[in-house]
Structure formats: structure tokens, C-alpha cells
Amino acid sequence: MAFVLGALTVLGFAPFALFPVTVLTLAVLLGLWQRARTGRGAAFIGFAYGLGLFLAGVSWVYVSLHDFGAMPAPLAALATLLFCAFLALFPALAGYLYAKSPFPNGIKLAVLLPAVWTLLEWTRGWLFTGFPWLAAGYSQIPSSPLAGYAPVFGVYGVTLAAVASAGLIVTLWSRITAKDEGGRRKAEKSPKQPDSSFSFILHPSSFILRTLLHPTAFILLALWLGGWGLQQIEWTQPVGEPVAVSLLQGNVPQDLKWREDRIRTTLDDYRTLAQSSASRLIIFPETALPLFLDSVPRDYLGGLAAHAKKNGGDMLIGVPERLPNGQYYNSVMSFGSAPAQSYRKFHLVPFGEFIPLRPVLGAIVSALAIPLQDFSRGTARPRPLEVAGQRVAVNICYEDAFGEEIIRQLPQATVLVNVSNVAWFGRSIAPRQHLQISQARALETGRYMLRATNTGVTAVISPRGEVVTIAPAFTRAVVSYRVPGFQGSTPYVRWGNYAVLALAAVLIGAVFVTRGWRART
Questions:
Q1: Of the residues 121, 257, 345, 444, which is catalytic?
Q2: Domains in the chain: how many in total?
Q3: Positive or negative CA dihedral for 438, 441, 442, 443?
Q4: 356, part of any domain
Q5: pTM of the entire predicted model
Q6: Phi/psi of residue 101, nearest 5 degrees
Q7: Are residues 229 and 257 in the same domain?
Q8: Boundaries of domain holding 148
Q9: 405: annotated active-site residue
Q10: Taking residues 463-468, what's their average pLDDT?
Q11: Residues 6+ positions from 359 with CB-CB distance below 8 Å
């Protein structure tokens, strides 16, 4: 049952976006933990839940390893299973700690467990370079009232609110049904009393009324109303005139992208798309030009720069950059009216862009058909690119999964740009999940997020995390929109993840202090 619950939880995330599902499946998971008799049993339940969640939610890892990485199917399936099993250890640990903690059940469900779950998700977001995918908070972006906590505490704050909601639901259900059980036992001793063991079925209106008037229900309502109230706050303000932007989607198949006989076609296609736009800012996807920058024909780059100057603006082009010393970077370069600038990717993807433990794993990874497996890291503290009258905070592909890194260029930046190539994941749910992650970054920072991708999903996202225009996936397309820059800082921009970590620590500390106080009295 826990495994099925985990798989169903994926329905709360994009592309399905049924945000109540995540809260409800978490509530059922907590109910299962309540019935676990041992810490080992609770850990096993948590592991089964996590395995179902990640096998259903990130099975696209198999697509990148097998379909495009040329890994044999059995080995790719095994690697995907082991990866998901590792990720499932985090909810397993949450279940173990829940079962072993010596506190009243209501306190564990509504206070302690949400804080512990949040800290474990945050840990998953940085351990071994981090994999924050399918953090519970993302499921609430952007439609749930709980999304209102994102500009204050970030996506992990939304996780805290979602798990707390699940804990409050279970606490409320337990206390209401406990009263019914008490009534049933009383009726057994006094036959004149009505049997209340089936009060929900026999007297639904009475059961619902008692539920709504219970103090726990008011706390739950306050939590959701608080999120809704925060959604009404305009944390940042527009600055300057809106700039016309065009996002290019070349739709180059991943299996053809790096073939030598396709390079000229790819260059011509992107030049045609760029020159069809009169926008002041034109953005290419990640590694749109399948050549090192020093190998791209000078007249090609000169023609693009001339078109950008004609529009009175600039182009941001994703292209690998190679230095004379042999180091190479996954970069975004600017060409046009402003002085040439660059952004070099800092947070690289393990095994896709660099090889961890190279002496041990190098031979295995080198057998995959993954080009450019040894990128160098850019600076951890980049400056926004000043182009087309805006200060642009660029991030490349996977980097926008790390909100604490995106805010390093804020509040100076007026707009966010993500360039990606998610063709690696085929027609899976990964591109839509990645879009939802970008929506969270826009909401956290109070700025537009512009996403230029190779095969989809190319989109413009508002500071409220809403998609305002989008290109169909797997088509050649140009997405154009007039985008205003924004200034100011959300609380999350100022505090980063420190605020939610401090809140989680306070909640855990309060539980221990309360227990000590009760023991003394």
C-alpha cells in the first residue's frame, strides 16, 4: 500500500498538478506509520513509499541512460532502480525517526515530523551534489494556497506546510474517531446510549460539524489561509520599460544533436529562428550551437551579433566554451549591442557533465554515449549579465533546481533566464517537472523566468509562478513576449534556506523543551 501511495503522489506534481493529492497521500502514509509497531517496520513503510514515488516520478533517468546514453537496457534499469532506492532512504529515515521519537502522537504528526521531513528533503538537495527533484513543496506550485509560503521560506517552506497539513489531517481524524470509539464503548456498557461507532455513516452532518469545530481544524485552516494571504502580497515591483523577448526552440533530436553531418543544419536552423525575431533580447537554449565557441564560424557569430544590434539589443547563446589550457565550460555567451559577457555553469550534473570518483567510475561512464563528460565549473558567485537594458541572472538546465544558488545573483538581477536541453529525457514527464521547478524559482524571487529549451518546454513564467505563454513541445518555435524587469527582494532572496532551517530547528527544539517541561511538572 505504501508503494502505491508513493506512486500516486506523483499525480500531485506536474504535468498532472493535482496538488491536494500530495497532502492526502502523505496523510495516509502518516496513518500507516501510526500503525507500525517497530521502528524497522516504519522505516520499511517509508522506504516502500519512497520507492514508489521515485520509480514513478523519475523513471526518466532510464530514458537518458538507455535511449540516449547507449547503456544496455538491463544495466540502465538496474542503475535507475538503485538510484531510486537510494532516494527512498530519506522517507525511510523519516519513518524510523517518527516511530522512535518518545512524544505524544499529535505533536509528532503536526510538529516534529514536518520539521524532520523538511530537513531530510533539504539534505537530499545537497548531499552528493544534491537531487531535490520531487520535493513535496513543488507539488503545491503555483496553484495551491500553500505556494504563498515560497517567497518567504522557499520551496522547503512549502514542503513544511504541506507535511504539517498532512499531520494535522491525521491528528484531526484520530481525535474525532477516538471520540466515536469512546462513545461506542460507553454504549456497550449502557444499551440505552446510541452506538456511535458508525457515526460518520449514520450521522454525517454531525460528524462533519464536530470535525470543523475541532481546534485542530482551525489550525489547519489558519495554515492554508496564511498561505493564501501571503499570495496577496506583491513582494517586488516592476522597474523600467518592458523588453521584447524571444525564446528559441530548435527541436533538434538528441540522437542527432552532436552528429558532424548535422552541425550545419542546426546552425542554419537557429540562425533562421533568430533572424525571424525583431525582439530586443533573443535567447538560445543550452548548447544550442553543437560546437566549441572557438570552432563556430566567425561570420556566423558576426551575423547574429549584427541582427541583435539592428534590434537594439542582444542575444544570449548557449554554446560550449573551450580555453587554451584545455578546460571547457557549459556556457551562455552574449552578442550584440552590449559588451560581450558570459555565464559559465557552476552546478554540474554528476555523470552527465562531470565524473565523480573518476578512478573508480571513469571506465564505466566513458562507455556511455554522453558527449563532454568533463566540464569545468564556473564561478559560484556570478554577476548578472547586463543585456538589452536588463540585468539577467542566467542559470543552465539543472541549476534552477537549487533555489539557494539562484538567489546569489539577486537582488541585482531584474529577470531570470534558464536555458536547457531536456531532449535527454524524451517524451517523459521530466520536462514538465522541470518547468514546475522553474515556476518555483520565479515565485521565490518575484521575477519573470524565461525558459529557452531545445525540445520543450519553452515558456515565460510570471513572478507569481504562472506560465503566461508556452511553446508546444517537440516543435520548432519562437516564443515572444514583452517582459518587465523587477526590483526588490522577497524574504527568501534575503534569507535563502536559512529561514526554513531555523524554523524547523525551532519546532524540533520546542518539542524537546515541552517534553522536558512536562516531565518536571
A1: 345
A2: 2
A3: positive
A4: no
A5: 0.93
A6: -75, 130
A7: no
A8: 2-233+498-520
A9: no
A10: 98
A11: none
